[in-house]
Amino acid sequence: MRHLMSPLDFSVEELDKLMEMAEDIEANPEKYAHVCDGKKLATLFYEPSTRTRLSHEAAMLNLGGSVLGFSSADSSSASKGESVADTIRIISCYADICAMRHPKEGAALVACAHSSIPVINAGDGGHQHPTQTLTDLLTIHSLKGRLDNMTIGLCGDLKFGRTVHSLIHALVRYPNVKFVLISPEELKLPGYIRKDVLDRQNIEYKEVVRLEDALPSLDILYMTRVQKERFFNEEDYVRMKDFYILDSKKMELAPRDMHVLHPLPRVNEISVEVDSDPRAAYFKQAQYGVYIRMALIITLLNIEI
Amino acid sequence: MVKNTLNVGRISEGFVLDHIQAGRSMDIYKYLHLDKLDCCVAIIKNAKSSKMGKKDIMKIECPIDFMDLDILGFIDHNITVNIVQDEKVVDKKCLRLPNEIRNVIKCKNPRCITSIEQELDHVFVLTDPENEIYRCKYCEQKYDGRLRRR
Known about the structure:
The complex is a heterodimer. Chain A is of the alpha/beta class. Chain A folds into two domains: 7-128 and 289-300, 3-Layer(aba) Sandwich (Rossmann fold); 131-285, Rossmann fold (3-Layer(aba) Sandwich), CATH 3.40.50. Chain A has eleven helices and nine strands. A five-stranded parallel beta sheet of chain A has the order 7-6-5-8-9. In chain A, helix 2 crosses helix 11 (282-300) and helix 3 packs across helix 4 (107-114). In chain A, 45% of the residues are buried. Chain B is mostly beta strands. Chain B is elongated and about 55 Å long. Chain B starts with 12 loop residues before the first strand and ends in a 14-residue tail after the last strand. The interface between A and B is medium-sized, with 15 and 17 residues.
C-alpha cells in the first residue's frame, strides 16, 4: 500500500505517468466518471481549508466515489483528545482512502504508520503540501509541454513559503531548470535550500530584489502571498505585504509565452487587472489541481484503467 | 602512589570508555541511564591525554550486554569502548553513527506532531552522514542540541 507524504515520494518516471493520466482525465473526463464507484474518500481536516479539501472531494466525486469527513478539529474526536493514530485506525474502517490536513508537522506520517488505507498528506503545518506541488508541476507541464529547459521565477515570500521550497525540490530533478529568486532581503530563500539543494546540484540561479529585472527572462512566474501568520510583529508584515504587486504594466515586460502561477489565495500581490491577461494561469492551476488529485486517487487505490 | 596520578581499580566485567571529550562524561552517565543501574561506576574527569589534551574516562562494572552502543555512537563516535571480562580487555568496539535513534533526544519544534501525540516515539534519522546531521523523522527539524560532540 502506498501513501503520499512528500512530492518526492514519486520518482520522475512515476510523476510522468501521473501527469499523463491527469492530462488524459482532462481530455476524456467521461472515461473516468465511474472508476471509483462504491469507493469512499475521507477528508480529515483538522484545520480550515477551502481549496484543498474541496478539490480532493471534487476529485473523488468526479470519479464516481463518495466523500465523508470533517473540516475542523472542533468537529472531530480530536477535540476530546483522541490521537491521530487512533483516529486513522477508526477511519480505516469507514473509507478506502483519506486526505489529511493537520496543523502539526509530521501528522500525516503518524497517520500512515497506523492506517490500513492510503493516506494523502493534504498539508501538515508548514512542512509538506505535496498535492500542491503536484498541481504546480502538472500546470507547468500542461502549459509549456515540458518540465525541463526552463527558467522559473519565484517571487515573494521565499523564506517561509513551503510551496516554493517543495517546488524547488521537485523541479531540480529535471534537466536545465534555472531559477530566479525574487524577494526582499528579509524573505530570501533559506540558506539550507540554496546550499543543500541548489548549490549541491549545481543548479543555476540568481537572486534579485526587483521583479521588473527578472520578468523578461522568465518562462514561468510563480507568485506567492506574504503570510501574516509568519510574522512576529504587525509592522514587519505591513512593510512586506505589498512589496510586490504584479500589474498590467509589469506584465508588459514579460515574454508573450510566460505564464503566471499562484498557489492562491492571493491578496494584493497580483492585481485583479492581470486576471484577464491570457498569461494568468492561476485559476487554471486550481482546475489542474482537481485533475492531478483524480489521477492520484486512482493511482493510490491501484485502480486499473 | 605516583605523584599527580589518581588510581582507579580494575573492573572484572563491564566497559571502559576512553577518549571521552573532557566534560562530557556526565552527559553519558545520564543518557546511558547509569543512575538507574545498581553497579560500580567510576568517572574520571579532565584526565591528561597526549592526543586530546584532556579527556574523560568512565569505568562501568556491569554485564556486557547492558550497554546501548547506538546511543554512545550518537553522542560521540570517537569514544573508545573497551570491553572487559575477567579483568582483561577482551574487545574494543568501534562506534558508528546510528542510522536512527529512538527516545534519546526530543524534538524541540513546537509545531511537530511529537509535541501533542500521545506515546509517540521521538525518532531522529541520520539524513546526512557526511555532515553528521540528524533530523526529526516527523517534521525534519535538524537536531542542533548540545548532546552531540561538536
